[in-house]
Amino acid sequence: MSGNRWQLLAGAAGILGLVLAPTFLDSFWVFFLAEILLFILFAQSFNLLFGYTGLLSLGQSVYFTVGAYTVALLIRQWKPGVGLLLPAGVLTGMVSAALVGSLAVRVRGHGFIIITAVPTVVLVLLGQDQSAWTGGDNGLNIIPPKLLGQYSFFDPTVSYYAVLPCFLATMFFLRWLLATPLGQAFLLVRENEARAAVLGYDTLRLKFVAFVIAGGIAGLAGALDALVTAYVIPSSASWTVAADAIIWTLVGGAGTLLGPVVGTGVLLFAREFLSDIWAHGYPLLLGLVLIGVVLFAPQGVVGALRKRMGG
User: Fold this and answer.
1) Stated pTM of the model
2) What are the 10-residue block averages of pLDDT along the chain, 311 residues in total?
3) In whole angstroms, what is the distance from residue 94 CA to residue 17 CA?
């Protein structure tokens, strides 16, 4: 059987497993799996920038938080349905990314990193001061609208089946995007921006487009998180949250769609498991994992497995 056919079968089995997961998991694990799926999307927003376009952004948490607060404030003011809330989260994530990206893509190296990191500090500080809009350090509790007018997000199964289609649609979108000429141009910028410019590509525009798309994906993840947890907080914009996406991606394998899936899933499960038996065990484990990845699998877990299999 060919490699492509094996990949299709594995993908179909994975999707089937995700669809059926709530039938054999209890409520806590259904909720936890929903959180993992939306955080995978968050990691994929960083992966699109760093793994496929070569841009090290420290600010994906900003667009995640903007998407989350968009949902929270819309619910508090107008109470629209989920069909409007999720696109609104994506849109505001893209708009905020466009504002930052219009400056960030014009500089390289440390300058780019600094410009993407500054909004994380600004947003956290503003969130702490503007308590009427953001709830300050306590954040905002919300009551999500019912899905399809009758299913409550306080039911973990409802939350899961709201997140799952968004997760699958985004993964298929990314797979499609990266196979298009635009996606291939992202890769060319990553490999050699100067050569891409010589070949006639508008590298600034390409980086800006990738930045905006990644912002929209992060905004979607934030919007889903607001609906699933019924809670938003300014500190979710901090650079430490952005660092989570970076770590998950690097451990799993940047520049692969499966990398953030593996990295996010494994590390979040490890954090949950260790929280019950050793409160401070996760930071130690994370440090050991990162050292191991740097020394033995610089391309991440997925990259190392592909290399071993000759793929």
Assistant:
1) 0.95
2) 67 90 93 97 98 95 97 92 95 97 92 94 84 84 89 94 97 97 96 93 96 98 97 93 94 94 94 77 80 84 78 51
3) 31
